Amino acid sequence: MKKQFIAKLLALALVLSMAPAAVLAASADGAAGDINQSPSGSYDPTVPDTAPVTTTVDAAEVKVENGSATIEAKVVAGTATVVVSEKALEAMAEQVTGDELVLKVEAKGATKVDVSIPAKALTAFAEKTGANLTYEMGDVAIISIPNEALATVFGTSGNAKISAQASGSNIGFSIQVSGRSLKAIKGLQVTF
Questions:
Q1: Which parts of the chain sit beneath pLDDT 70?
Q2: Residue 83's beta-bridge partner residues?
Q3: Packing angle, helices 119-129 and 86-95, rounded to 10
Q4: Distance between CA atoms of 119 and 41, rounded to whole angstroms?
Q5: Are the beta carbons of 159 and 177 closer than 8 angstroms?
Q6: Burial of 188 per CB tally in 10 Å (0-12, 13-18, 19+)
Q7: CB within 8 A of 150, min separation 6: which ones?
Q8: pTM of this prediction exceeds 0.70
Q9: Nearest alpha-carbon partner for 153 in 108, 190, 112, 184
């Protein structure tokens, strides 16, 4: 009986001695969205804690020159996130004189660029201007959406999110409305 008790006690001690290591490993590897991550995705205490930063564009900040509106985006951990308000896009629409507006996102050092705009603002822009909308996403990609698609595909509810990301030799993009991916947009042009 003493031998069984000692064996159980040793097994318990062994399990308890491994628990702190298992808890630490789980919290470092399993923390989705943990900001202190190395490129491999594991916890790295040498990487400073940085919260995502969003650059918000309001109507007062908008100026279209030569068919182009430039947004200087803040880049944190390789990501630039831009939110264009409905009033900002309306202000751009009033200044468009040609058949295209280039929304140029200057994001030095960004490998991922996200631009969000209310979907109904895109539809209204298309109807008011008759112009195409081109997104220059930093050094990552150029995405041109024709006027016809702006007028018909985006609808009037939710937000449109246009994203481009470069990772090593892989480059990709996505266009979403209310979290739903849009595919086969007629006339869409993408340049990497």
A1: 1, 9-52
A2: 56, 116
A3: 10
A4: 33
A5: yes
A6: middle
A7: 122, 123, 125, 126, 132, 133
A8: yes
A9: 184
